[in-house]
Amino acid sequence: MYAITNSTGQYTLNTNLPTDTYNVTLLFPTGYLTNTVSGIAVTAGQTATANIALNPSGVISGTVTSTTGQQISDVSVYAFTASFTFFGSATTNSSGQYEINSNLGTGAYTVEASYDSQPPSIYPTQVNLVAGATQSGINFQFTVTPTGSISGQVTSSAGGPVVNAYVEAQGASGSGSDYTDINGNFHNWSRCGRLHS
């Protein structure tokens, strides 16, 4: 069972818990370390309070580009300690940038980027991080074969745009897909990823 904190950090596990003792864990809070409060005594029909104090996470950030200097979006980047005591992940944005900012405590991290069907790229040195501090410039490069794309608009027979329609292109050399936006527009990228110049 789980709950999501609101804008003031409050949560309610309103699940009719039977009388027992529970552990309450906050998982991957953005900007902070995961934490658990143990031994929360709950009596059936009553509400117990479990406040969780969080310590700031470290941050690892960088950019993923092709060997020709183009930014690559939708690349998964992972950071983990040898014991997996601390670990986190992020995905590059349209500028090829990523920021792992949750559950990174003080320690030495292996940072790995995964893109399309290529073998994962591992940063050549471990990244030494202090909780609450930032290590930037942890960058990656991949060799990318240039690909084309298809753009267009989907409209109804009455002439208005069709929103959130799934558009897919398939061929012998690859495939791609996208959803139309509020104007019915789509941009169908190849399966090899999205490059931004």
Protein model, in words:
This protein has about 200 residues and is mostly beta strands. The protein has 3 domains: about 1-55, no CATH class; about 60-140, Immunoglobulin-like (Sandwich), CATH 2.60.40.1120; about 150-190, no CATH class. The protein has no helices and 17 strands. The protein has strands at about 20-25, 35-40, 60-65, 70-75, 75-80, 85-90, 95-100, 105-115, 120, 125-130, 135, 140, 150-155, 165-170, 175-180, 185-190, 195. The strands form 6 sheets. Strands 5, 6, 8, 9 and 10 form a 5-stranded antiparallel β-sheet that branches. A hairpin with a 2-residue loop joins strand 14 (about 165-170) and strand 15. The model is unreliable at about 190-195 (pLDDT under 50).
Helix content: under 10%
At the fourth CATH level, what is the homologous superfamily of the largest domain? Answer: Carboxypeptidase-like, regulatory domain
Question: What separation lies between the terminal Cα atoms?
Answer: 44 Å
Topology order in helix (H) and strand (E) letters: EEEEEEEEEEEEEEEEE
Q: What is the CA-based Rg, rounded?
A: 22 Å
* CATH fold-level label of the largest domain: Immunoglobulin-like
What kind of oligomer do you see? single chain
Characterize the overall form.
flat
Number of helices: 0
Number of domains: 3
Query: How does the helix and strand content classify structurally?
Result: mainly beta
What's the CATH architecture name of the largest domain?
A: Sandwich
CATH class value of the largest domain:
Mainly Beta
List low-confidence stretches: 191-197
